[in-house]
Amino acid sequence: MAEEKSRWVLMATAQTPTNIAVIKYWGKRDETLILPINDSISVTLDPAHLCTTTTVAVSPAFTADRMWLNGKEIALAGGRYQNCLREIRARACDVEDKEKDIKISKKDWEKLHLHIASYNNFPTAAGLASSAAGFACLVFALGKLMNVKEDNSHLSAIARQGSGSACRSLFGGFVKWVMGKDENGSDSRAVQLVDEKHWDELVIIIAVVSSRQKETSSTRGMLDTVETSPLIQHRAKEVVPKRVLQMEEAIKKRDFPMFAQLTCADSNQFHAVCLDTSPPIFYMNDTSHRIISCVEKWNRSEGTPQVAYTFDAGPNAVMIARNRKTATLLLQRLLFYFPPKPDTDLSSYVIGDSSILEDAGIKDLNDIEALPPPPEIKDNNVTKNKGDVSYFICTRPGRGPVLISDESRALLNPETGLPK
Ligand code: PMV
């Protein structure tokens, strides 16, 4: 690298989805490497509605590694960022950009500093696995910038060291995180089970539930559970291994009743081990419980499951409907039980793929007021608590990470390497 050329900036921009586990990861056997005590399975959510975009840049003019999240500079000092940066740098290769006349050799990467800008297209504070999409996107984008030769499954073992669930965001469709056996974590990686086209009738509706309290972080929660819950050992050793096999079969065969039964049971058992922790951890709240009972009642009245529900380390409900018709009926039910506060703008209350709202025949708040009670309700004495749900997101299974070649969509200025 000649000194006179020290003003160049080389960048890569990527977009990476978030994911929601249908067989949960809860509990680590190694805190630093982030190695889990069981396999887990997730569905990747459509990046059109929930994703992270990250631009990474390198320049000899940079004096330190720096990162901006949603426009605000954040500290990169945390061990998890440092672990990801160290691991990806160790795999960097020679890079040549003939057009810009830039040559970076493998050994230069150790000395060069990076600028990183990341943006979530959904509220970071909503508790929607933003760290999963974030770390996956960071590792994927750096892999491209540094010409890392490893495939996405190997990259997933690096993203895992940022946030466990991030390793599953390196693929679209349904993804399995294999817990692995190696002490160094090299075989604890994500693999794609099927791509997003395999089961494309599925529709996903997320209820972002208003929460009053700050939840226990997943890191703290898992630690406490592994230390104090007798139930977690039974779950990890006896229950999950069988469930993972059944879930893989259900996904392969698109067997919705089996899929829904396993998804709901696994979410409920995850929350049971949280309750079995000392002190007990409560992630779900009253609204979460009401959503469960609404779905359970409906599924029972139909004789076969129409909708699966799952909850992560927070009160938000993720509901997976067997097809579009069912999703329409689900949205009608959800809006009946959880109407918006007066004067709410409907387009900010149901976001994402709002065409489901049109299918449900809902154009304004009056249409919500006029929704009849679902037929499975025996007594008409239902409480409707306006404001218990902040908003709904309609989405579907989606694709894995992609590189964005259009430089106008980069989050960093190509001349300065600073946020635009
Ligand atoms: O990767 P973390 O530390 O955000 O933990 C995720 C834990 C759950 O979301 C509750 C389950 C899962 O498998 O994603």
Notes on the structure:
- By secondary structure, this protein is an alpha+beta fold.
- It has two domains: 10-196, Ribosomal Protein S5, domain 2 (2-Layer Sandwich), CATH 3.30.230; 203-395, GHMP kinase, C-terminal domain (Alpha-Beta Plaits), CATH 3.30.70.890.
- It has eleven helices and 19 strands.
- The protein has helices at 79-90, 130-145, 152-159, 218-228, 230-253, 256-275, 286-302, 324-337, 346-349, 355-359, 365-369, and strands at 10-17, 19-23, 28-30, 35-36, 40-44, 51-59, 66-69, 72-74, 95-97, 102-104, 113-120, 174-178, 189-194, 203-209, 307-310, 317-321, 350-352, 389-395, 402-404.
- A six-stranded mixed beta sheet has the order 8-7-11-6-1-19.
- β9 and β10 (102-104) form a beta hairpin.
- α1 runs parallel beside α2, α2 (130-145) packs across α3 and α5 (230-253) packs antiparallel against α6.
- The model has no long low-confidence stretch (mean pLDDT 94).
- Bound molecules: (3R)-3-hydroxy-3-methyl-5-(phosphonooxy)pentanoic acid.
- (3R)-3-hydroxy-3-methyl-5-(phosphonooxy)pentanoic acid is lined by residues 21, 24-26, 40, 131, 163-165, 218-219, 312-313.
- Belongs to the diphosphomevalonate decarboxylase family.
Write the layout of secondary structure elements.
Elements: E1 10-17, E2 19-23, E3 28-30, E4 35-36, E5 40-44, E6 51-59, E7 66-69, E8 72-74, H1 79-90, E9 95-97, E10 102-104, E11 113-120, H2 130-145, H3 152-159, E12 174-178, E13 189-194, E14 203-209, H4 218-228, H5 230-253, H6 256-275, H7 286-302, E15 307-310, E16 317-321, H8 324-337, H9 346-349, E17 350-352, H10 355-359, H11 365-369, E18 389-395, E19 402-404
Parallel strand pairs: 7-11, 17-18
Antiparallel strand pairs: 1-6, 1-19, 2-5, 3-4, 5-12, 6-11, 7-8, 9-10, 12-13, 14-16, 14-18, 15-16
Helix pairs in contact: 1-2, 2-3, 5-6
(3R)-3-hydroxy-3-methyl-5-(phosphonooxy)pentanoic acid (PMV) binds next to helix 4.
